[in-house]
Amino acid sequence: MSDSTARAHSPGTSRSTSATIPPNILRSLAGVVADGYGVDLQPELTGVGLHEAVMSSAALRVSYRQGSAVIRRAVELTGDAHLGLRVGAAQHLTAWGLLGFALMAAATLRDAIETGVRFQNLSGAMVGWRAGAQDAGYVLRAELPDPALDPAVGVFLAEEAFGSVVTLTRLSSGAEFAPQSVEFTFPAPRDTRPFTELFRCPVRFAADENRLVFPAAWARRPMPGRDPVTYAAVLELLEGQMVSRRDQQDLLEVLEISIAQSLPNVPSFVEQARRHASSERTLRRRLAECGTTYEAVVDGVRRERVEQLLRRPELTMRDIARQAGFSDVRALRRAVHRWHGVAPLQLRAREERLDG
Q1: Hey, what CATH topology would domain 230-355 get?
Q2: Positions of the region Disordered (predicted)?
Q3: pLDDT digits over 92-130, tens only?
Q4: H or E element that contains 182
Q5: Are 5 and 132 in contact (CB under 8 A)?
Q6: Cβ neighbours of residue 55 under 8 Å, at least 6 residues apart?
Q7: CATH T-level fold of 11-226
Q8: Higher pLDDT, residue 341 or 203
Q9: What pTM value is reported for the model?
Q10: What residue spans define the domains of the chain?
């Protein structure tokens, strides 16, 4: 089998602190856990810098690190092992903005799938999508952004990914849709009924990859809302958004690398503007267009560095504070508590258990 459409920019190739992902999953997640479990996720969102006013902004972008932290806490707070399925089933096309309209206006379901894969970086996807034809039908694959991802977050993302695909296909193409088969890489849960109830097809666990097979007849099926003129017009707008997004991601990655290479000293904002031949006002505006600030970028890089250093048992808290650019151990403790809700030693112990 050869993939007819590949990822435009793999999430695995970008630094996990870059805030470049539309927060569609987090918004849907917050609504599901509030309505279904009475859990308010805003404290968790605020804890990673996503304050209530910020979450309502259409320009907001989040990082994989922010998204993973909120997802991990949501699974813990609800105790729902199938939370990803429920969030996927709550998705709707209009939450994807222009991309949602492009999918509805595509000629066939296969065209819609390939359009979604082509512009996946605008959809808020937190997995990497690949699609292609094979003898059994049309296959959609979902790849996790990081092999070392927290297992609970990985399960959530895989469930949400295929849950949303099936839900959106039924909304746009026909409520009777069912995949030919669905496969997940994680082990089978004790109760598999939520999977068979949602997908209405054979579901396999502990597979080599996460994949969903569309029956060939469904892949060829015309979309009810197909409109070639609208489709072409929306694609032109999406291409413009992709160029803008690449520029934003490039800026964030360059800043993050600059900060990471300078630690424990953090370059001032004035110095960063000078390095990038930009005025402070222009650099501040460009970061605002990315939905972030220089302080938030610095915080993300420091967080990543601290988490790396905590995995080295020979380092003391004083060593870690100094190498990550904190004034003292107390400042380190405050930052780790803000990021994770625990003390540095507790976080180190938790990481050791996960590594073991």
Answers
A1: Arc Repressor Mutant, subunit A (1.10.10)
A2: 1-21
A3: 988 888 999 999 999 999 999 999 999 988 888 889 899
A4: strand 181-183
A5: yes
A6: 23, 26, 27, 30, 42, 45
A7: H-NOX domain (3.90.1520)
A8: 203
A9: 0.75
A10: 11-226, 230-355
